TrEMBL record:
The keyword Oxidoreductase applies. The lineage of its organism: Eukaryota, Fungi, Fungi incertae sedis, Zoopagomycota, Kickxellomycotina. This is 6-phosphogluconate dehydrogenase, decarboxylating. Gene3D superfamilies: 6-Phosphogluconate Dehydrogenase, domain 3 (1.20.5.320), N-(1-d-carboxylethyl)-l-norvaline Dehydrogenase, domain 2 (1.10.1040.10), NAD(P)-binding Rossmann-like Domain (3.40.50.720). Signal peptide: none annotated. Pathway: Carbohydrate degradation; pentose phosphate pathway; D-ribulose 5-phosphate from D-glucose 6-phosphate (oxidative stage): step 3/3. The active site is at residues 189, 196. Residues 185-475 form the 6-phosphogluconate dehydrogenase C-terminal domain. It catalyses: 6-phospho-D-gluconate + NADP(+) = D-ribulose 5-phosphate + CO2 + NADPH. It comes from Coemansia spiralis. GO terms for molecular function: NADP binding; phosphogluconate dehydrogenase (decarboxylating) activity.
């Protein structure tokens, strides 16, 4: 290995596990000199002698040596376990850094931690960037989707490296652009993961209708998904679903059918749902997708319930199969539109609260390649934000207005079919309920307000005088004193 101790490296990376090693090799491939460091220092030499052999990658055996090897302003990324390891490394690095140096956290950190670290490091005159990295090991090696946010002064220094190593969308555009300030990068990555939960749940619901309702074989379903991948649903997840449906175990039987139906989760879908509740945004589809995983993991209880609880007498589909396939394609497409619209609503709310100045068109562009939710459809979202930067909701974009309007008959029909067959479709149906709720000028919330005022004197507003809170003594008993008005 090189013993050079002068500042020669364009970029430093700390964390030599799967993500770090692959990202370093990717950066090296693009002509940048990288210096590697790791808590367990022996891994540095192992990496240099093996995976990084015959590259221009260099290593360091201490934080001091690592910092000394970086060109100014120093650019260093942490790819270590999310949580206290990030804070620990920041504290270890700080005494060796100078004003204007850049620390990037590329791990799966919670955006609130990123916001906190951004504020702390800004006070120390260090430029902090929280960067969502999507695409797993393969993405890190050959092109991830990168979602950097934090101190915008860092971006001009990072842009040439990040855009070189990022995945490229089909039109060649890099799947990396500046997301916004503070914790924006990790927030956007979190919403990306939540949307991924939603897309996966939608596909799973359609698979169950095909399997249990229609009785299609896995190969027959594989053919339908392959066909869908040529249309509006064209995406990585539809593509891998086709492969999964067609995949045979060593005995020639579909492997999929042998897999236990209890879904795991690592938490980013849950974080998205929690922040949706925190910010009062109706991100219902991701919420249902998280709960559907929770329900799936109650496997033993469900098996008992399957024997105790009755379903409909007819649970086999006997209608027009070709029409059902078309309806389900439209139902999935329209539900996806709702899910993305909800995700962008959540980002807009957080952006307003934290003053992140989120760049919505770029976010759609960043998701077009290198990540799990990559799809042709994201190009349409990008176009919608290009046409109107201040788009209130994706559903107001003429393209998506038309798409949901065209899809709605099939969407409604598919949900009716599933409901009559007793097949659960939480994501498909919550999307439709949201659509109907969103396009309803007068919802029944007046009843809720009246009830709240009746039992708790919580007050209500009249349509004729919004902002003016009134209390009625509904029963003639009790007094006219009302509770303070508040929004929960
Ligand atoms: P891991 O998440 O498994 O973390 C391993 C690294 O963290 C090693 O360098 C390890 O050092 C270091 N580390 C740990 Br563990 N505890 C530490 C501590 N207390 N102080 C300092 N260093 C510590 O690695 P990964 O799977 O490569 O992921 C890296 C980051 O990227 C994570 O935040 C992860 O969530 C995120 N991410 C992962 C993927 C993926 O597909 N794996 C995708 C996107 C993002 P050691 O060698 O000394 O133990």
């Amino acid at each position: 290995m090189s013993s050079d101790t002068t500042a020669v490296a364009d970029f430093g990376l700390i964390g030599l596990a799967v993500m770090g090693q692959n990202l370093i090799l990717n950066i090296n491939d693009h002509g940048f000199k990288v210096c590697a460091f790791n808590r367990t220092v022996a891994k540095v030499d192992h990496f240099l002698d093996n995976e990084a052999k015959d590259t221009q990658i260099i290593g360091a055996h201490s934080v001091e040596e690592f910092v000394a090897k970086l060109k100014r302003p120093r650019k260093m990324m942490l790819l270590v376990k999310a949580g206290s390891a990030v804070d620990k490394f920041i504290e270890t690095l700080l005494p060796h850094l100078e004003e204007g140096d850049i620390i990037i956290d590329g791990g799966n950190s919670n955006y609130a931690d990123t916001q906190r670290r951004y504020e702390y490091l800004t006070s120390k005159r260090i430029l902090f960037v929280g960067c969502g990295v999507s695409g797993g090991e393969e993405g890190a090696r050959y092109g991830p989707s990168l979602m950097p946010g934090g101190n915008p002064k860092a971006w001009p220094h990072l842009k040439p490296i990040f855009q070189a190593i990022a995945a490229k969308a089909p039109d060649g555009a890099p799947c990396c652009d500046w997301v916004g300030e503070g914790g924006a990068g990790h927030f956007v990555k979190m919403v990306h993961n939540g949307i991924e939960y939603g897309d996966m749940q939608l596909i799973s619901e359609v698979y169950q209708i095909f399997r249990d309702g229609v009785g299609y074989t896995n190969d027959e379903q594989g053919d339908i998904f392959a066909e869908w991948n040529k249309g509006v649903l064209d995406s990585f997840l539809i593509e891998i679903t086709t492969d999964i449906l067609r995949f045979k175990d060593t005995d020639g039987q579909p492997l999929l059918e042998k897999i236990r139906d209890a879904a795991g989760q690592k938490g980013t879908g849950k974080w998205t749902a929690i922040s949706a509740l925190d910010y009062g945004m109706p991100v219902t589809l991701i919420g249902e997708a998280v709960f559907a995983r929770c329900l799936s993991s109650l496997k033993d209880e469900r098996v008992r319930a399957s024997k105790a609880l009755a379903g409909p007498s007819n649970c086999k589909f006997t209608g027009d199969k070709a029409k059902l396939i078309k309806d389900l394609e439209q139902a999935m497409y329209a539900s996806k539109i709702i899910s993305y619209a909800q995700g962008f609503m959540l980002m807009r709310e957080a952006s307003t609260l934290y003053k992140w100045n989120l760049n919505y068109g770029s976010i759609a562009l960043m998701w077009r390649g290198g990540c799990i939710i990559r799809s042709a459809f994201l190009g349409d979202i990008k176009n919608a934000f290009d046409a109107d930067k201040n788009l209130e909701s994706l559903l107001f974009a003429p393209f998506f207005q038309k798409a949901t309007s065209t899809a709605q008959d099939g969407w409604r029909s598919a949900i009716c079919t599933a409901t009559m067959l007793g097949i659960p479709v939480p994501a498909l149906s919550t999307a439709l309920s949201f659509y109907d709720g969103y396009r309803t000028a007068r919802l029944p919330a007046n009843m809720i307000q009246a009830q709240r005022d009746y039992f708790g004197a919580h007050t209500y507003e009249l349509e004729s005088s919004p902002g003016n809170y009134l209390h009625t003594n509904w029963t003639g008993r009790g007094g006219n004193v009302h509770a303070s008005t508040y929004d929960a």
